[in-house]
Amino acid sequence: xxxxxxxxxxxxxxxxxxxxxxxxxxxxxxxxxxxxxxxxxxxxxxxxxxxxxxxxxxxxxxxxxxxxxxxxxxxxxxxxxxxxxxxxxxxxxxxxxxxxxxxxxxxxxxxxxxxxxxxxxxxxxxxxxxxxxxxxxxxxxxxxxxxxxxxxxxxxxxxxxxxxxxxxxxxxxxxxxxxxxxxxxxxxxxxxxxxxxxxxxxxxxxxxxxxxxxxxxxxxxxxxxxxxxxxxxxxxxxxxxxxxxxxxxxxxxxxxxxxxxxxxxxxxxxxxxxxxxxxxxxxxxxxxxxxxxxxxxxxxxxxxxxxxxxxxxxxxxxxxxxxxxxxxxxxxxxxxxxxxxxxxxxxxxxxxxxxxxxxxxxxxxxxxxxxxxxxxxxxxxxxxxxxxxxxxxxxxxx
Length: 398
What we know:
Elements: H1 19-36, H2 46-57, H3 59-66, H4 74-89, H5 92-95, H6 112-122, H7 124-133, H8 144-157, E1 162-167, E2 181-185, E3 191-195, E4 202-208, E5 222-229, H9 238-247, H10 252-267, E6 272-274, H11 277-287, E7 293-299, H12 307-321, E8 326-332, H13 352-359, E9 365-373, E10 376-385, E11 391-394
Parallel strand pairs: 1-5, 1-7, 2-4, 4-11, 5-6, 7-8
Antiparallel strand pairs: 2-3, 8-9, 9-10, 10-11
């Protein structure tokens, strides 16, 4: 796992942490709770909301989180540390609130928060160490639900098999999207399905609004799959796999699909490149057969790039587009991350109502497509989606 990246942290002393940082981290925690578990979210997301609300409001939990550098997403790191350590030596009463793969979502009651607070107090030093030694790694396989309709739109225009390049691949779960099964629940009560009907990975979401995502029963052929990450993750390492599982939101659908996707990835190891996303793009192009369509996919990766690196990535994609056709599918929150966001990582404009929703705390991923054919760039906003794959809103014209 990642080596320690920070020095010692003061535990149990809220005054030892900068007050402004505590306010910022509390706001982050509340925003995460609101994004993953808004009022209209399925009831199974209650534990996610309760966890991040507790981090925002409890002194002990907030002190632990606020000791983590802001660019490492403190509330998320702490939530993962709590879950990770709970599996090692947590009380059974607290563990009973957390869902297991393939099971049900334990119901809420007033005992969860006191139990979580007591656990944090008794294990503060261990939790602080875990937060120092790890980075948050979200491998939400459900986000493939956002990518698949974009691939269908591409396939309707271009029959070539795909050279699928997953940027910021992490554990590589997104590289196997053609090995999963997808169900889109439409507002009229009907469903659209795609993918491998025999797959153990069953992904589903509700479709909002008037638009209908294009769905092909059979996904486009994948001729090459390649992951790129600064720190690729090895699922055969037990400790790594446990930490990744702890990073999954404590919602039964999320933990179930993650566990199933891990088994698929272990059964079908895919090649990967270690290094900087921008610097490796020329190497990626060299790996892609000339008779395939290069398809770059990033989900919740580019939103965290500094502005200068994001600009460099866009320029690198443009250079590639001068020598071969390329598709870039992005599922990322608006940038800059936070209520002051003005656009997408691909530089595309979004409806003003989306900017307002974002200012009101409604974090979502914008599904964007940039395609370059014969050196000509086109960009389209396709829709937006819940960060944990609960819903999808498709806005692109058929």
